[in-house]
Amino acid sequence: MFIPSPLCCSGSIDAGTPTGRVEVIGDMECYVREPDAGVVVTGAVVVCTDVFGFKVPNVRLIADVFAANGFVAVVPDYLQRAAVRAELLDAECIVHDREATIWQRFQAAMLILWCMPSLLLLMFMRPQLATAKRVNTLANQVRTRWGVTHVGLQGYCYGGGVGILLSQQQDCHLDAFSVAHPGGLFRIPADFLKIVKPIHVVLAETDLQIGPKQRNEMIDALEQVDSLLEGGLLSKVEWFDGVRHGFAVRGNEQVAHVKQQREAALTSSIRFLNAAFSKKSSL
């Protein structure tokens, strides 16, 4: 069962306008953004969302960036009606706004209570293991549909935990993984000792689940796998200072440092997946 923390439900909504389309692939609605004409296609990426699902513009705009860099980007609606309402982000911002009036804070608190049923639905109806199976099936469908050689996964929070589960399966239909501030009931270092596919992990300075101790244990575990696995394991763990859990997908664009760290994390993820696809060892 996935148990979201307060940081899983914090952040902001991006102001941009996604340019892709929504279509059904298999049994799921998906946001799809293909590279523009003239852009060389390097592979595909399944972008696994956080608890707010695939309708929030943030994750769709990330897919657009992947497409601009040569990826067929697909964002599945695997949470469906269990996705947490995006209004919760606005409420969380108001609660922490020192200039907010008592009435505004009261309204925000009521909005948070209104969103609680979707949090409970997510916890009990969308276990990450079941979602991982659906994402694995989707990856195979994407590979067949677009005829690409490589399919990667970009995951955020809940979706990052899904990525960790799939990266432990040698026979899964995904070739490489990049997960940002992953969340879930995975264990460190135990679950990272099981990873067998290339993996990139983006971590925030402030994270209730993964602190400096867990980060070091994660790095040690992946290095151990690299020494034992035939052919080694391509992996990279990055830590971004001055930001908190959720920054890579919900970080406030209006805060210069957060925006810079968020863009740097996405650039690094794209670079890693490309390196994994081409089996390069230098990142």
TrEMBL record:
Pfam families xrefs: DLH
Domain Dienelactone hydrolase: 30-275
A GO molecular-function annotation: hydrolase activity
Protein name per Swiss-Prot or TrEMBL: Dienelactone hydrolase domain-containing protein
